[in-house]
Amino acid sequence: MPEIPLRPGGKLTPVRKTHQVIEYLRPNPNAMKINATALFVLVFLAVSLAGLNPAVGQTDSLGTVVGSGELVRLDLANGRTLEGEILEENEAYMRVRTEGLGILQVQKIDILRRTTIDRLTPYREPRANPQSSRYYFAPSGIQLRQGEGYYQNGYLLYSQVSYGVTDNLTIGVPLIPFIGAGLTGKLGGTLSGDLENGGVHASAGGIVLFDWSTNFLEGPVGIAFANVTFGREVSNFTMSVGNAFSESSNQLVWNASFMVPMNDQTWLMSENYVLGEGILASIGIRRASKSKDSLFDYAMVMVTDGEFTVPLPWISWTFSFD
After folding, report:
1. Fewest C-beta in 10 Å: which of 8, 63, 142, 177?
2. Which residues of 74-104 are buried (b: 16+ CB within 10 A; e: fewer)?
3. What is the topology classification, in CATH, of domain 149-321?
4. CATH code for 65-116?
5. Model pTM greater than 0.90?
6. DSSP for 176-209?
7. Distance CA 268, CA 279 (A)
8. Domain residue spans in the chain?
9. How do residues 125-159 score in pLDDT, each as one tens digit?
């Protein structure tokens, strides 16, 4: 076998053995494929963990802070208030975990005010009908929930504020400028079924007005009542009986009222009374804003004593709060 010297004075290396070394050092094509795949997976995982998902409290190249855990109350431009835990935040938006609504992404441009809070307010489903507790004026057997309330104004003269002290007790203050003010109260609840699917609801209470300056009312006047409501929060019918009283008289009053939804923001309503020989009948609509915190009632009212009939328009505005 021929031998080739490596350098002058050096040892001779057999050609066959050199070929064997070269073959041993030559890369294996299959091994290269396996190593390339493993390298790709490692690089992908490293980028995902280090770049795409920064650690809690760290900031990435886009300025996004992840997992601060801050509890906030956000007052939004649409009039709503949102509470939750911040999961992610940058200059453009924040992702907030809320109770009841899940994880929401809120654009910073839609936030009017941001307040840090210690704990979250327990979540309650919004009312499908925020004014199911009354018709134009007459109460239904459905109650305000604890913490709910409303301000009502009719004809720019009569005003009333009502508030749910508990889920079963509502109190209020009516006011007529230059004439008097008073108190309202209603105690009740659901007897069977529920508000979503339908049931029977009942309440009892009253309203009293005191003349504070003009003697226009000739003493306290008011109505004590009891009622029963059948149906759901968005669609119901109520029958009630009451006693209209003053210092000099008492008169039995019968009432029948209903509301039926025409769409998500509009209800057809009717409220009707029989008081001795007198009858008051009405028909009209209630229209709510998209957020359902502002409502307008429009109705045509007919008042008759059997001989004369007087038509009157009714208009009122209500602001609901919770």
Report:
1. 8
2. beeeeeeebbbbbbbbeeebbbbbbeeeeee
3. Porin (2.40.160)
4. 2.30.30.100
5. no
6. ETTTEEEEEEEEEEEEEEETTTEEEEEEEEEEEE
7. 20
8. 65-116, 149-321
9. 677 888 999 999 999 999 999 999 999 999 888 99
